[in-house]
Design goal:
- The chain is of the alpha+beta class.
- 31% of the residues lie in helices and 23% in strands.
- The protein is built from seven helices and eleven strands.
- Helix 1 packs across helix 3.
- The radius of gyration is 20 Å and the shape is globular.
Length: 277
């Protein structure tokens, strides 16, 4: 709207509603408290949840998700660590339940799913399959038991050393892959049968930055092409799922490895939010 007379600009005006809008005064902790904490509460209630950071190259997606873990003199944590801190704090207060918490960490680079927690990750990637009971799974993916926040942080740092990064024309330290951190929680009531198990998972996704085509050359151009391809596929799936007039339509999850992995997080009975940077 025009700030002086309140009239709408342009002939074809579109409204884009957001649940929350943050500015330069908001740090990662305030973002966590307002929009991510409820996702962790969902996990403890037995529901799956997903948060994705999306935006063009250099807009702060990795800073939002991971924080300043590599910068000396800075102690701002990312929403991943705030979520893990909150999760373990809640778990440790539960006296009538027992918990098993595991994590996995993978990247999708040039349309290959690569395990970041294995000592010698294969550049050819690992298989993504669909199980009729468990949904989309990655059978060869490393899952590690974690019992405190420092465990998760150490494995994130280890995984990030193996994650594909590279300089581009607009960002010296650009993430050239999508990174997916999964925290799975198995909980049992201590006073009931061991058969009663509640399983849930939290996915925290640091998407690679979208780019204008033609700005890079060689391997960077190939990377950028695959990044844009997978982000386009993600947009197609979200648009179909969000359009009520297209209810029941075919959703092209198989157009990319990213959307295949996120199938249950996009179309299932799951709370999902996107942080647009």
């Amino acid at each position: 709207k025009d700030p002086y007379n309140g009239e709408l600009y342009g002939k074809n005006v579109k409204a884009f509603p957001f649940d929350s809008i943050f500015n330069e005064k908001d740090d990662n902790k305030s973002i966590f408290n307002k929009i991510i904490k409820k996702l962790v509460d969902n996990i403890l209630n037995g529901y799956n949840s997903t948060a994705l950071a999306y935006g063009v190259t250099g807009t702060g997606k990795t800073h939002t998700m991971i924080g300043d873990i590599y910068q000396s003199g800075s102690n701002e944590k990312g929403i991943c660590m705030y979520a893990v801190d909150y999760l373990f704090n809640k778990i440790n207060k539960e006296s009538d339940k027992s918990f098993i918490t595991k994590m996995s960490y993978l990247e999708i680079y040039n349309e290959q799913a690569i395990d970041l927690l294995t000592e010698n990750p294969s550049s050819e990637g690992i298989m993504i399959v669909e199980d009729p009971n468990k949904g989309v799974i990655v059978p060869e993916l490393t899952q590690i038991n974690v019992s405190k926040s420092s465990d998760v942080l150490n494995y994130i740092i280890l995984g990030n050393k193996r994650r594909t990064m590279g300089p581009t024309g607009v960002n010296q330290f650009s993430s050239r892959s999508h990174a997916i951190l999964e925290i799975s929680v198995e909980q049992r009531a201590n006073n009931k049968s061991k058969e009663e198990v509640l399983n849930s998972k939290l996915l925290l996704v640091d998407l690679a930055g979208s780019e204008r085509g033609g700005l890079e050359k060689g391997i960077r151009r190939e990377e950028g092409s695959n990044i844009n391809k997978s982000l386009l596929a993600l947009g197609k799936c979200i648009n179909i799922l969000a359009d009520r007039s297209k209810k029941g339509s075919f959703v092209p999850y198989r157009d990319s490895k990213l959307t295949r992995l996120l199938k249950d997080s996009l179309g299932g009975n799951i709370a999902t939010l996107m942080i647009a940077c």
